[in-house]
Predict the structure.
Amino acid sequence: MNGIYVELPRKTWVKVKGRLGGIATSKKVGQTLIAESLDGKPEIKKKPIDTYYISSTSVTKYIYKLIDSNLHRTSLIVIRYIDVEKYRVEIYSGRVKEIRKIAEEMNIIRKQKPKNKQ
């Protein structure tokens, strides 16, 4: 089971298949992701090798970079919605260092604030 699985804000899940370029919008040419809807969250029985948080405004660009580098073909990456500001990236298999390096080069990794103890 390889690929990029994304939890959307309405708690629905999709598997990203690729991207489609050359979509003409007003005054510029854009791109769009191709994804397949899932009936529920993917069942993964192991713990992630690496976990970090990224800015919600950068999720799509990050997925484009992963697709461009073909890392989605040999890796299992889950991107979970946390809140309007951030998503959690969980890497279960593949070239973990390369996947994380893309996020670091894009400067989109966010620090997780510690929870307040009460």
